[in-house]
Amino acid sequence: MRQSQLFTKTRKEAPKDEVSVNAQLLIRAGFVDKLMAGTYSFLPLGLRVFKKIENIIRQEMEALGASEILMPTLQPKENWEVTGRWTQLDNLFRFASYYSKIDYALGATHEEIVVPLMKKFVFSYKDLPTATFQIQNKFRDEKRAKSGILRGREFFMKDLYSFHTNEKELDEYYEKAAKAYEKVFQRTGVGEQTYFTYASGGTFSKYSHEFQTVSEAGEDLIHICDKCRVAINEEIITDLENKCPQCGSTKLRKEKAVETGNIFKLMTKYSKPFELKFKDQEGSEKEVIMGCYGIGLNRLMGVAVELFHDERGIIWPASIAPFLVHLINLGQDEQAEKLYADLTAAGIEVLLDDREVSAGEKFADSDLIGIPYRVVVSKKSLEAGGVELKKRSEQANEIIAIKDLISLLKK
Amino acid sequence: MRQSQLFTKTRKEAPKDEVSVNAQLLIRAGFVDKLMAGTYSFLPLGLRVFKKIENIIRQEMEALGASEILMPTLQPKENWEVTGRWTQLDNLFRFASYYSKIDYALGATHEEIVVPLMKKFVFSYKDLPTATFQIQNKFRDEKRAKSGILRGREFFMKDLYSFHTNEKELDEYYEKAAKAYEKVFQRTGVGEQTYFTYASGGTFSKYSHEFQTVSEAGEDLIHICDKCRVAINEEIITDLENKCPQCGSTKLRKEKAVETGNIFKLMTKYSKPFELKFKDQEGSEKEVIMGCYGIGLNRLMGVAVELFHDERGIIWPASIAPFLVHLINLGQDEQAEKLYADLTAAGIEVLLDDREVSAGEKFADSDLIGIPYRVVVSKKSLEAGGVELKKRSEQANEIIAIKDLISLLKK
Asked: What are the backbone angles phi and psi of residue A187, rounded to the nearest 5°?
């Protein structure tokens, strides 16, 4: 993409009411725009990052054998009354149609929709296990929305739901889903900072599990057992007598963290009120056993910025960066255009800075935007034998012969 | 994909309250599910069709030089008050936050969001022209929602907005956008039935233009000039004295049609209230000239079903079909599995019917689902020298040697 064609520009200042580091940097670099508290637009650069995260998640969900669907945002009150959450869920947006006097909820989560949907297709043990997921914006009437894109009133989630004949089958799927989540966090670049975390379980199971990514921007507190590489949410640490539930160690490290994913054994919590049942091999009716599994896409994007930035800007992990290469043309149009064409033809994603602005402005914008590799084509670099290559995450740069650049970047 | 892994099943009957042909067939074949009037879930097969339509539209918008963004659904009242549409737009969903007493609108269209957004990036003639689009669900509080997925209370649109320094530049872009729209309709298979249609223009221009697809399911009436291959919306036919605005002919053919796209010259209608201005080459401030361009994705999907079906089910155009090939295994597991693997490896999208049901049920489901090519592997076909190939749109079938199948399908 040509930077001259990008309608966004970097900005010196983020909005004054924006206190979070993630949103400040993302707004200044032109990835997102703040419409109001808790509500952001994804701009071209931001949407590219978003789609990379989305594709990684989609691949891992498909590898789990789950099929993708897309359920409505506009949901009828009656479904939410079946579970009692019409009144119990504080942050559910509720409103009426002007014309038809239908009462609607805005999708905050989709158990109330996916369970009645499955009731139309699941009848027998032969129809199970099955799993389905969607990637979609959700809405919550949050009291406060001050963490940038980490806690929005509108935000994107992947929600996966699994359906089983018995608890053992659910347990096995749950393990597989946890592994898939670890892959998602590894692949998006935040794996090292992300911990499988024991949290309170609710009605049906002793614990639920979260994935918590250690960050100063986090609203949660976790206690990490470095030996087992797991954590315990502050909310249950007393119940666990300050011990790691895996090795029993009391050597725990307390950190702030962001909940980037969660997995729940729902058991029959939602299949019971909606009467989602199946006939087992003996022909008797049983309630379907369920699991649900969420990942916040905005959160993943926001936490990556919180983890990977410096005073000059963002430092994207390559797997979710908007482009792999930021090609900076300093007055060498012919060579820069040829290199842009060659890199693009080689399948490398390039942002070409072809704007008529100063070298200093180009470098500052490049550091702010945070693309992993910066390649400068200048009179000086050509005289030295090629282009100047610099990683955003490192200080050093080197001159690379143009003929060697593609194979080096492809590695 | 293996049909045994698809959680949806075909159904004998659609819901009793579903009167439209498109939704009846899409529900029976398992492409969509009706949550309530005007609100549908896309199920795995339906989402595949949806994504094919989405990708065709995206490619044509990118070819127009427009960059993709994603704006919020949740929108502040204040933006809608600037244009007066908070009270004027009948079908705008309006509601309040419980906590913050913020008043929200649900995105019915995005001029109120995209214009203030552009105000942050457009200052000079050098920043223009520019164009941006999104593909997103929109919400309208429709009085009636009885046309299946053709008129939903929640529905998906591609909305493109273009920004210009002068009217001539807008006119040129508008022409290019109209051409891109024609490509979208051709590529999705409904081009032959779709007409560039003159419609009422509103405040700033004599006409606006719609793309109307001739269908009995349509809520609009158009008058077609077959010579010019254009149409006139019933709403302005009297103003035009029943004449074609291009050739003056009165030989017009009246048809029911579905509005699948529309393009408007907005001029300064929205830039004025939001004071979206630019400095021209002489340094004087002027209002930005705008165009907007919409395509309904659900409508395209629904109208394709209305146009292409028979008494047995849907007949998808290949470009938007969920799969190219429906591979029906009649008891020949080894050959069917090998063929499934070979076709998939050749990049051909295949739905393998590996279910343990009767041949009759497989054939009936295949006709209902409407995948362009049906390939049957049976004892009989193998004895005759290969597999039985049949187009969904034709009655005839033929035996094809397995070694010739891939090259034939790749054509």
From this structure: -65, -30
Nearest CA in chain B to A15: B120
Note the pLDDT tens digit of each residue in B278-299.
Answer: 999 999 999 999 999 999 999 9
CA distance B246 to A45: 43
Q: Are A44 and A399 in contact (CB under 8 A)?
A: no
Give me the residues of B, 111-150, that contact A with CB < 8 A: 113, 117-118, 120-122, 127, 130, 132, 137, 139, 141-143
How far is it, in rounded angstroms, from Cα B112 to Cα B273?
10
Q: Does B202 touch chain A (CB under 8 A)?
A: no
Q: SS3 for chain A, per residue?
A: CEHHHCCCCCCCCCCCCCCCHHHHHHHHCCCEEEEECCEEEECHHHHHHHHHHHHHHHHHHHHCCCEECECCCEEEHHHHHHHCHHHHCCCCCEEECCCCCCEEEECCCCHHHHHHHHHCCCCEHHHCCEEEEEEEEEECCCCCCCCHHHCCCEEEEEEEEEEECCHHHHHHHHHHHHHHHHHHHHHCCCHHHEEEEEEECCCCCCEEEEEEEECCCCCEEEEEECCCCEEEEHHHHCCCCCCCCCCCCCCCEEEEEEEEEEEEEEECCCCCCCCCEEECCCCCEEECEEEEEEEEHHHHHHHHHHHCEECCEECCCHHHCCCCEEEEECCCHHHHHHHHHHHHHCCCCEEEECCCCCHHHHHHHHHHHCCCEEEEECHHHHHCCCEEEEECCCCCEEEECHHHHHHHHHC
Question: Which residues in chain A land under pLDDT 70?
Answer: 202-205
Q: Which is nearest to A157 in space by CA: A132, A138, A139? A: A138
Asked if B257 and B213 touch (Cβ cutoff 8 Å), the reply is: yes
CB contact under 8 A, B9 and A121: yes
- The full set of domains in chain A, from first to last, is 3-71+110-310 (3.30.930.10), 323-410 (3.40.50.800)
ipTM, interface predicted TM-score of the complex: 0.96
pLDDT above 70 (res B204): no
B41/B50 Cα distance (integer angstroms): 11
State the Cα–Cα distance between residues A339 and B265, nearest whole angstrom. 39
CA distance B58 to B134: 9
